[in-house]
Amino acid sequence: MINGNRKIEVMRKKKQNGPANSGGLKKKSVARYSPKKEAEAQVSESAVQYEHPQGPLHMVVDDQIQEQELVLSTPTRIRPITVLGLLEDQRLDHNYVSSLNTLSQRTQSELAQMLNITENTYRGYLKDLSKAKTDTKEQIIMLVSLFKHGIAVFDTIQAFNDWLDTENPFFDFRTPLGFLNTNSGVHYIDNRLTAMEYGDNV
């Protein structure tokens, strides 16, 4: 009877104190590392920042997407009807200037010379293109198209820029770059690129 009472007393104490362990302390649950959960957390955090309308991440990502879309929507061949259509596009804003800046990998000073404007004016267009003249906007579109065409012909922007900077006997030993400050000159160089695609030595 005594043994039975002792067993009951031991069981009652176990219930009160909880299950015993080797250290006399309760085991703590340790969260296992999960790459998937970490990636989901990062995506979730970025999404929260992007949703904030004034957040810097939102503005940067939005501008980058806009630039990519504008470059993709610009044809690699200059056609008047296409240029006219793009001039009427509501998306023709400062991002188009940024896309030219990124695509061409030329300096702001060089691009300003192509557009026949000052470097300060060019920097202003990187933020706001609304005050630019129509012929300036037209030339920006044509230059984006030309640089896309040049990359298609030469495979890389570096190779195309090297060609633009090299004096060429087919241009009376002038550099092709020297023709890019007028719409007619941009057309001329674009036609020469097309000729190269068909096997002409230019």
Description:
The chain is mainly α. The chain has one domain. The chain is about 65% helix and about 0% strand. It has ten helices and no strands. α2 crosses α3 and α4 (about 80-85) crosses α8 (about 135-155). The longest helix is centred in the last third of the chain and has 21 residues, at about 135-155. The protein starts with a helix and ends in a 5-residue tail after the last helix. The relative contact order is 0.08.
Series of H and E elements: HHHHHHHHHH
In one word, what is the shape? Answer: globular
Radius of gyration: 33 Å
- What percentage of amino acids are in beta strands? under 5%
The overall average pLDDT, rounded, is: 76
Q: Give the low-confidence spans.
A: 22-28, 42-61
Biggest sheet layout: none
Residue share in helices? Answer: 55-70%
Helix/strand structural class = mainly alpha
Number of helices: 10
Distance between the termini: 112 Å
> How many domains, as an integer?
1
What is the number of E strands? 0
Biased composition (Basic and acidic residues): 1-11
InterPro entries: Xre/MbcA/ParS-like_toxin-bd
Region (Disordered): 1-49
Organism: Sediminicola luteus
